[in-house]
Specification:
single chain; mainly beta; Elongation Factor Tu (Ef-tu), domain 3; SH3 type barrels; 2 domains; six-stranded antiparallel β-barrel; six-stranded mixed β-sheet; 41% strand; elongated
Length: 191
């Protein structure tokens, strides 16, 4: 899973806490490539360097364990080969399946960063008025910056750009995100 690039205290690594996922999504297999059993994989992690030979990953909805035999950069993704897979037909069994690692194997983040799943559910509070805006329910990726999706108590949503002038502080102790609302952010959501 991608790391949230925000200022906050590092929650660390290791076994998942209550409510954290057991597995983290790191990639999505697309199609076989070539004749030796390789697959094209879209990378969905900030740490693709950990997807190397002898690494155990889990594939598909049933999380079948497989070991990576080889991985190399290919375009914007990877060509990945699993042990025991030697033909395009064998690789085809994994077409369009997700690739996971265990949460316990996630690398530690630098101080001041969170994994996305750790910030979902945080209360979003307007810094100047201390007013609750809602709950962080999702994170959207855009070309320029991420966008926080905030579910409001009335059922509407507010989209907040994740930029330094808007997202001021993430506090893991209180599970809050303190924000500065730029003019029109809430008004546009209520129209």
């Amino acid at each position: 899973m991608m790391a949230a690039r925000k200022k906050a205290r590092n929650a660390g690594s290791g076994s998942p806490s209550t409510g954290e996922p057991e597995y983290l999504l790191v990639g999505s297999l697309r199609r076989p490539h070539g004749v030796r059993g390789e697959m094209v994989m879209e990378v969905l992690t900030d740490f693709p360097e950990r997807l190397k030979p002898e690494t155990k990953v889990f594939v598909g909805p049933s999380r079948n364990p497989v070991v990576i035999e080889g991985a190399r950069i290919h375009g914007e993704g990877l060509l990945i080969k699993f042990e025991g897979v030697g033909t395009p037909e064998e690789a085809g069994r994994y077409r369009n399946q997700a690739v996971y690692v265990t949460a316990a194997d996630r690398p530690p983040l630098p101080d001041g960063q969170f994994y996305e799943h750790q910030v979902i559910g945080f209360s979003v509070v307007e810094d100047e008025s201390n007013e609750l805006i809602g709950t962080l329910s999702g994170i959207m990726r855009t070309g320029a910056n991420d966008v926080y999706v905030v579910a409001r108590p009335d059922g509407s949503e507010v989209l907040l750009p994740v930029i330094a002038s808007v997202v001021l502080k993430l506090d893991s102790g209180t599970r809050t995100v303190r924000v500065h609302l730029l003019p029109g952010l809430i008004d546009d959501a209520e129209e």
